[in-house]
């Protein structure tokens, strides 16, 4: 990528945020504060929040389930809706939801007015998105139901206290709870009884739209986060591996690798984590706003061999991508490599991928 002019927000994301972020340190401690799991509408000055249930290990042909929402608007290139004008009430009044599996491309995407289409309980006990998606409960137990033209989802979630904090600061928190799921998914007339380990995720943050609740005409005021990938790998035997890589204006914002087990073991590494696309898909994807986005076919993760979490893992995307996570895509991959000295391989990989770099 060519060098870009750097903005104040770009410097914040790549130089300041990594210093003030306490995520890796707190990831070694049990999760105990359900007050973290609230919408941005319940926190003064906050402009967006996020929910996610990501399951990487479903039977064929489903492979994975992605239920992700962005509530409010972050001001970042990777997540802001660009092809549909904001609703009455401004960008903070928008919510979007993606519901996808490998069997249902191009996936489901819903666009909602929070004040008329949604219901967000101030304590986080209910999140409703029209008639399409509902997440109800209190930590550690939640009930997720979703219905699209292709899917009917009914899952009970039991969250553990094993938490990964990608970001933990006073103005932005983003966490993932190791979670057990059990329930049914109906697709194409077949009911799948499913259970296993997944992730339950939540974020809440301030942003440019905390200051101004209307489309921002000045590019320097936006958050120039322009590359993002997040991946969940089920290693079996209770082990789950998470990866994240982000960039802003050609510089790393956060790269991390996280290994965790339901028995409470957890390792977080946010230094020296490298992500590389080895080979792209033959054709770039065209997003709804007309951008051409290269999507990976093969990729590699690597961490230092002398780190607390040595990893060399190669992935191959082997299911269709579906659009609808922010301004990008979700999909599935198979993998092979070594993690903490043990050889691993399988097909239970879930990928989120957004590349809005110029």
Description:
The protein has 358 residues and is mainly beta. The protein has a single domain, classed as AttH-like domain (AttH-like fold, Beta Barrel). The protein is built from three helices and 23 strands. Strands 4-3-2-1-11-10-9-8-7-6-5 form an eleven-stranded antiparallel sheet. Strands 12, 13, 14, 15, 16, 19, 20, 21, 22 and 23 form a ten-stranded antiparallel sheet that branches. The longest helix is centred in the first third of the chain and has 13 residues, at 8-20. The radius of gyration is 19 Å and the shape is globular.
What topology emerges from the helices and strands here?
Layout: H1 8-20, H2 23-26, E1 48-55, E2 65-72, E3 94-101, E4 108-113, H3 114-117, E5 118-120, E6 126-129, E7 133-138, E8 141-147, E9 151-168, E10 172-187, E11 190-205, E12 225-236, E13 239-248, E14 251-261, E15 266-269, E16 274-280, E17 285-286, E18 292-293, E19 296-302, E20 311-317, E21 322-325, E22 328-339, E23 342-355
Antiparallel strand pairs: 1-2, 1-11, 2-3, 3-4, 5-6, 6-7, 7-8, 8-9, 9-10, 10-11, 12-13, 12-23, 13-14, 14-15, 16-19, 17-18, 19-20, 20-22, 21-22, 22-23
């Amino acid at each position: 990528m060519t060098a870009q002019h750097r903005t104040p927000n770009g410097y914040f994301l790549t130089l300041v945020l990594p210093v003030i972020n306490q995520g890796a340190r707190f990831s070694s401690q049990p999760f105990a504060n359900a007050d973290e799991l609230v919408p941005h509408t319940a926190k003064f000055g906050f402009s967006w929040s996020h929910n996610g249930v990501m399951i990487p290990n479903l039977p064929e042909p489903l492979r994975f389930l992605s239920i992700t929402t962005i509530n409010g608007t972050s001001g970042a290139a990777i997540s802001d809706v660009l092809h549909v004008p904001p609703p009455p009430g401004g960008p903070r009044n928008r919510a979007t939801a993606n519901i996808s599996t490998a069997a249902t491309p191009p996936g489901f995407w819903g666009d909602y007015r929070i004040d008329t289409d949604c219901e967000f309980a101030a304590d986080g006990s209910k999140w409703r998105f029209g008639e399409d998606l509902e997440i109800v409960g209190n930590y550690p137990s939640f009930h997720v139901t979703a219905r699209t033209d292709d899917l009917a989802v009914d899952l009970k979630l039991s969250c553990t206290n094993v938490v990964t904090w990608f970001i933990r600061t006073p103005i932005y928190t983003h966490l993932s709870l190791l979670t057990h799921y059990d329930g049914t998914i109906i697709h194409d007339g077949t009911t799948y009884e499913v259970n296993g380990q997944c992730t339950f995720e939540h974020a809440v943050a301030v942003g440019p739209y905390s200051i101004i609740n209307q489309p921002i005409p000045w590019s320097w005021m936006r958050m120039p986060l322009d590359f993002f990938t997040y991946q969940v790998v089920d290693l079996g035997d209770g082990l789950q591996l998470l990866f994240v890589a982000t960039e802003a204006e050609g510089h790393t914002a956060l790269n991390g690798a996280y290994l965790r087990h339901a028995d409470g073991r957890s390792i977080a590494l946010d230094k020296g984590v490298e992500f590389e696309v080895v080979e792209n898909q033959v054709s770039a994807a065209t997003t709804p706003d007309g951008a051409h986005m290269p999507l990976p076919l093969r990729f590699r993760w690597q961490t230092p061999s002398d780190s607390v979490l040595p990893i060399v893992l190669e992935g191959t995307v082997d299911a269709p991508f579906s659009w609808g996570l922010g301004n990008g895509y979700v999909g599935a991959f198979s993998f092979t490599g070594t993690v903490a000295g043990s050889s691993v391989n399988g097909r239970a990989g879930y990928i989120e991928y957004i590349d809005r770099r110029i």
